[in-house]
Design a protein that fits this description.
The structure is a single chain. By secondary structure, this protein is mainly α. It has 2 domains: about 1-195, Up-down Bundle (Growth Hormone, Chain: A), CATH 1.20.1250; about 195-395, Up-down Bundle (Growth Hormone, Chain: A). Helices cover about 80% and strands about 0% of the residues. It has helices spanning about 1-25, 30-35, 40-55, 60-70, 70-90, 95-125, 130-155, 160-180, 195-205, 205-240, 240-245, 250-265, 270-295, 300-330, 335-385. Helix 13 crosses helix 15.
C-alpha cells in the first residue's frame, strides 16, 4: 500500500511542479521573445501576468470540480489542455497565438496543485499526511527557482522555443504516468455534494483556515520579493556577475527542501498550530535581522547566504502543516479548500513584485524588507491568536 501511494505521490508532485515551473522557465529569454514577435516590454510581461492571473483565478473552478467530478477526472483533462497549450507556444509564430497558448497552459495546469493536495488527503492517514505534503510543497516551491536555471541552460544551447518543447514532453509524461498509476480517490458518497458560495465563505471565515490563508499570502509575497529583488541587491552591493547570480538561489532552494522534510517529520511530535507559530515568528525575525544588516551596511556574501538558507528552512517547515491543516479541517471539500489556498498564495506572489517596486521607490531596500518583516510578524500573530481554537480534533 505504501509503495503504491509513493508512486501516486510522484505523479501528483510532478503535475504540481509543472505549474510554477512553467511560470518562469522562459523568463531568461524574455528579451528574445519580444524581439521574435516584435512587441514591446509590456506585451512580453503580459505573457507572464496572464498566466499568473489565470493560474490563480482558475483555482475557484478546479477545486469544486475535483470535489464533485473526481480527482483523476479533473487532473487528466487538465494535463491534456496544458500539453496542447505548450505545443501551441512551441509552434507559434504569432504573438497572440502564443498568448492564447499561455492561457491554455495556465488553465490546464491549475489542476496539478489542487488535485495533488486533495489526493494526498484521500489516500494518506492523518498521521502520514505531513511527510507526503512536504514532498508536494517542495515541488511547488522548486518550480519557480528551477525554471530560470533550466531555461537559461536551454536558451544557451538552442532557441528559446525549446523550453516549450520540454514542457510538452513533460506534460505528456505526467499525463501517461497518472493515467495508468492514479486511481480515482474521491469517496463515492461525496461526488454528489454541491459546492456553493457558502462553501467558500465557510473556508474563508473559519478562524483556523483564515490564519493559514493569511500566512500563506504573506509567505508567497515574501518569497517572490526575494526572487525578484535579489539580483538587483547582488549587483548593487557586491557587483556579482549575472552568470553567477543564479548560485545565490541555491541556499534558498536547499533551505526549502530541508525545511519541508523537517516540517513533515515535526508533525509527528508537534501540533500544526505550534509549528506554524514558531516558524512564522522565526521568518519575521530573520527578515528583520536581514533588513538591519542592510541598514547598518553589515551584509556580506557569507551572512547573505546564511540568511537565505535560514529563510528557506523556516518557510519550508511551515508548508506541510498549512496544507495538512486545511485538508484536515475540510474533509469533504479538500479540493475546494486547496483551491482557495492556492488562489490566496498566488495572489501574494502577483502582488509581491508590484507592491515591492512601489516600496523600493519610496524607501529602497530598507522599506522593502522591513515591511516584509512586519507582514510576516502580523501573520504569525494572527496564527498565534487563533491557535486556541479547537484544531486538535482535526489534527
Amino acid at each position: 500500500m505504501k509503495s503504491r501511494n509513493g508512486k501516486i505521490l510522484f505523479g501528483l508532485s510532478l503535475a504540481a511542479f509543472l505549474g510554477p515551473f512553467t511560470q518562469t522557465i522562459y523568463t531568461p529569454s524574455l528579451p528574445e521573445v519580444g524581439h521574435f514577435y516584435g512587441v514591446n516590454q509590456f506585451m512580453v510581461n503580459l505573457t507572464i501576468s496572464l498566466y499568473t492571473f489565470i493560474l490563480a483565478a482558475n483555482q475557484f473552478f478546479i477545486g469544486p470540480r475535483a470535489d464533485t467530478r473526481g480527482r483523476k477526472a479533473t487532473l487528466l483533462p487538465g494535463l491534456l489542455i496544458f500539453m496542447t497549450g505548450s505545443l501551441i507556444c512551441f509552434l507559434s509564430s504569432n504573438y497572440y497565438l502564443f498568448l492564447f497558448g499561455r492561457a491554455m497552459q495556465a488553465f490546464g495546469i491549475t489542476t496539478g496543485s489542487v488535485v495533488a493536495a486533495a489526493v494526498i488527503g484521500d489516500i494518506y492517514a492523518p498521521h502520514e499526511r505531513g511527510k507526503a505534503m512536504s514532498v508536494y510543497q517542495t515541488m511547488v516551491f522548486l518550480g519557480p527557482v528551477l525554471g530560470p536555471l533550466i531555461g537559461s541552460f536551454i536558451s544557451a544551447y538552442t532557441d528559446w522555443h525549446a523550453s516549450f518543447a520540454v514542457l510538452t514532453i513533460g506534460a505528456l509524461f505526467a499525463y501517461l504516468y497518472n493515467r495508468f498509476v492514479l486511481h480515482e480517490t474521491l469517496p463515492k458518497d461525496t461526488t454528489s455534494k454541491r459546492i456553493t458560495v457558502r462553501t467558500f465563505m465557510d473556508i474563508l471565515t473559519t478562524r483556523a483556515a483564515f490564519s493559514v490563508l493569511l500566512l500563506g499570502f504573506f509567505q508567497f509575497y515574501g518569497y517572490y520579493i526575494y526572487l525578484v529583488f535579489l539580483s538587483g541587491l547582488l549587483d548593487e552591493l557586491f557587483h556579482v556577475p549575472v552568470a553567477v547570480e543564479g548560485l545565490f538561489f541555491v541556499p534558498l532552494t536547499a533551505g526549502i527542501v530541508l525545511g519541508t522534510m523537517l516540517g513533515g517529520k515535526l508533525q509527528a511530535h508537534m501540533k500544526h498550530s505550534s509549528i506554524l507559530v514558531c516558524s512564522a515568528y522565526g521568518l519575521g525575525f530573520v527578515v528583520m535581522l536581514f533588513g538591519a544588516c542592510l541598514y547598518w551596511s553589515l551584509l556580506t556574501i557569507p551572512n547573505l547566504s546564511l540568511f537565505l538558507l535560514s529563510y528557506g528552512i523556516l518557510l519550508g517547515v511551515s508548508l506541510p502543516s498549512q496544507s495538512t491543516l486545511l485538508v484536515n479541517l475540510f474533509v469533504k471539500e479538500k479540493g475546494t479548500a486547496m483551491g482557495v489556498y492556492n488562489f490566496i498564495r498566488f495572489t501574494g506572489a502577483a502582488i509581491g513584485p508590484l507592491l515591492g517596486t512601489s516600496l523600493y521607490k519610496l524607501g529602497g531596500e530598507n522599506a522593502l524588507y522591513m515591511t516584509l518583516s512586519l507582514f510576516l510578524l502580523i501573520g504569525a500573530f494572527v496564527v498565534q491568536r487563533n491557535s486556541h481554537v479547537p484544531l486538535q480534533e482535526h489534527e
